[in-house]
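Exam review. A common question shows you a sequence with its structure tokens and asks you to describe the fold in words. Practice with the pair below. Do the first one on your own.
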Amino acid sequence: MNFLIFCPQKKDVPLPAVLKKWMPETVWFAVQKIIEIELFEQFAQHIEFGAAKRFEDWYNELTPESEKLPLDWKKLEQMPFEKLLVIRALRPDRITTALDNYIRKVMPRGDDFVDCDSTSNSKQILESAYKDSTTTTPIYFILSPGVNPVEDVEYLARSMGLDTKKMLHTIALG
């Protein structure tokens, strides 16, 4: 889970010349870290020596998360969480779509979770989350760059008759 969330890197092995034309250094450094996870010990060697061209083709797919990986890594089609780790390492730009697909495929009624807020605006979503919260079940905002929910939180507080100057204290943890 730590790898999926943070995608740590190990920078002590330089990017091999055979991979330089298509693989960014940051991807190679993530590959060097994923090989520390059981099951992935041979992953870097397979990319570099086993099928560099086939991995390049997979890497260059528009939707690589929907494609089988080269070599024996095809087995990850039956191991969706582990495939997420590979996508996180090789194509971090595709992880959001891959996570949507994972939730749809793995969780019971996964479509309901992925699509649950597709017809609601941000204020309606916050109101729904507030109804689910308690004094011991807080609401956390996990944000993308440039997103600021403060206006919606203040709107919710005002709609409940609260004085936002006295009753609301925001803390940015970034």
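Now try the second one, then compare your answer with the model answer below.
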Amino acid sequence: MLCIKNLNTWFYTKTGINKAINGIDLEITQGENLGLVGESGSGKSVTALSILRLVPAPGRIVKGEIEFFGKDLLKLPLKAIRHIRGREISMIFQEPMTALNPVFTVGKQVAEIYQYHFNYSKNEALEKAVHILQLVGIPSPETITSAYPHQLSGGMRQRAMIAMALSCKPKLLIADEPTTALDVTVQAQILRLMDELKHQIGTSILFISHDLAVVAQIAQKIAIMYAGKIVEMGDLKQILESPFHPYTQGLLAAIPKLGHIKRHLETIPGSIEKANSIGCAFASRCKKRLPICSKKAPSLKKIGTFHSVACWQYE
């Protein structure tokens, strides 16, 4: 359904070029949930914005292909992309308080999607808005349509965002850290809701998060991203049970486990670097680095039927 080939999205700043995405390849099939995991600054959100061609200045998609059902989205005119956004590919943005317009009611913002994509009248669109708000589990949706975003709780705002994203029954839903600002109980409700709606509508999901534990609850396949590159990719079970890349191993080791009391939590030393280095971007933080790691970047290689890794240890 979605095939990304050698995507490069760079930011041209006063201090130089920041290669936020430095040649990634990704595939999502119909009905599949793919989890894109990595720490802040790894390029996850820029990947999502690149798919929808919403990369803000001074960012620019330099090269690559983003094929959606055989059409290269990077070659389509802007008018065609606007009809795909929201209708065929929808996105739940990271922070619902800033993504929702504070001066318009929730009902107006949801109804606007039906008016734009289906030319519904104002009343018809509002009826549809009430129905979709009810579908995502918002109580008294008729009342909520008259409310402003600041009058809703974090969980309710997130549900409203999901309602907007699913209103056109898109083929692909991009969820950019949709549960980050929510408490654990609401987080579980949102994940369950997304999974239920996915089965009802048949939508594929690209779920972006820095939390492997959250991704494990919704994804069937996982791609680990670091400094603008995919460093490991495979089925959920394979990645969780047999992680090969030192970065994936570090992420899994950092998850606190019930019943295992430790004086110090596991951490990955150092911080993420810009993807401009000659060698492997993770080399400076890696406990298993080899002499070649700082000289040449490894490519993503298959080490199993559905498992790939970019690391010199497995060349």
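Model answer, second protein: The first helix runs from residue 44 to 51. Residues 4 and 66 are 5 Å apart (CA to CA). Full marks require stating both points clearly.
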